């Protein structure tokens, strides 16, 4: 009694699982061409969003750093180029996070060097301090804190 019941139970539970795994074969004329991320055209960047982000960054920098009119326009262009590049990389490398992170990092380094050329040394130092604070990078003073217990000098 138990064996036929067990066989019937296994048949009933296994059949839907097996059917869910198989798909009917298609002939060559019915087959849909598979589209990959590389074959599909990338969606267009939302230029209004890109400009809004770049303008918001620039406005914040203006308030925090007191930019001159010439600096303001240069910083706006730097931010626009950077935001556009990051958004483009996000769309292009959406499936390759490592590649996207590398491209975004390169954009950030390029932006930093352009800002360093545009800002005065005092403005750039202030920008760096704010940036490190926002990103959670420990300051040089914090890094010198108390020595780690158990290491020489930290007894």
UniProtKB/TrEMBL annotation:
Regions of biased composition (Basic and acidic residues) lie at 126-135
* Signal peptide segment: 1-20
Region labeled Disordered — which residues? 22-44, 123-155
**UniProt KW keywords:** Signal
Superkingdom of this entry's organism?
Answer: Bacteria
Please note every region of biased composition (Low complexity): 31-44
Task: Specify the protein name.
Answer: DUF4890 domain-containing protein
Q: Which organism is it from?
A: Hymenobacter perfusus
Taxonomy, top ranks, is: Bacteria, Pseudomonadati, Bacteroidota, Cytophagia, Cytophagales
